[in-house]
Design goal:
By secondary structure, this protein is α+β, with helices and mostly antiparallel strands. The protein is about 15% helix and about 30% strand. It is built from three helices and nine strands. Strands 1, 2, 3, 4, 5, 6, 7, 8 and 9 form a nine-stranded antiparallel sheet that branches.
């Protein structure tokens, strides 16, 4: 699997806004996944920028220590290339202590369900009282109907796909939390089958997840 070599440029390590903050992480892109290589990247660690682009995550954290936004960017500040496998912009909302709402956004800041890739426009995760377990997840799917009918799908086919998509179910993890340093104020809620996914993470991600699971 081909990997892209990374070069660095200068970023502030922490930017404060209100009572929250913004931090940055170096990532590597492969043909199918993103991987965190280094958390909280520091300007003093960077060599001079070169001609080969590199990629990073801009993470926004609220005053309660919870990730609220992840943006996957290149050194020019543009969004990384979007694929069916990986997001480019995620936002997290916390209506109460045991609910997390994840919104998937495109580069224009708009949410839309992708039936072809199997990506909802919104996922709602329900957690146990101690915030360690995911008890249920519900998906919302509001696709661009005109785009799919133009591609040859009937409205009945689109409606059936949405109905199947929105069936409540279980999840092994909160999508995108492996890329967050803050996570849920240091916690990493998981489903019953989460252990089977550990092999998919980078060493940096594994270390942070293992620490969070002990909290």
């Amino acid at each position: 699997m081909k990997r892209f070599f990374l070069l660095f440029f200068f970023l502030p390590v922490v930017t404060c806004f209100g009572q929250g903050k913004v931090i940055y992480h170096e990532i590597e892109l492969t043909a199918s996944i993103h991987q965190v290589i280094q958390w909280n990247i520091l300007p003093k660690n960077f060599p001079p920028p070169g001609n080969i682009p590199f990629y990073y995550i801009k993470e926004s954290i609220d005053q309660k220590g919870r990730v609220t936004e992840l943006k996957f960017l290149d050194r020019s500040g543009n969004f990384a290339d979007a694929t069916c496998f990986e997001p480019i912009w995620l936002q997290y909302q916390y209506p109460n202590d045991t609910t997390i709402i994840l919104v998937y956004l495109n580069e224009d800041g708009k949410s839309s369900c992708d039936l072809e890739c199997g990506i909802p426009d919104q996922s709602t995760y329900y957690l146990s009282h101690d915030q360690k377990k995911i008890t249920q997840v519900r998906y919302r799917c509001i696709p661009d109907t005109a785009m799919y009918t133009k591609a040859g799908l009937s409205r009945d086919e689109i409606r059936d796909s949405i109905k199947e998509f929105e069936e409540p179910g279980l999840s092994s993890q909160i999508v995108g939390y492996e890329y967050s340093f803050a996570k849920l104020n240091g916690k990493f809620p998981v489903g019953t089958d989460f252990d089977n996914r550990m092999m998919l993470f980078s060493n940096s991600e594994k270390s942070a997840i293992q620490k969070a699971l002990k909290k």
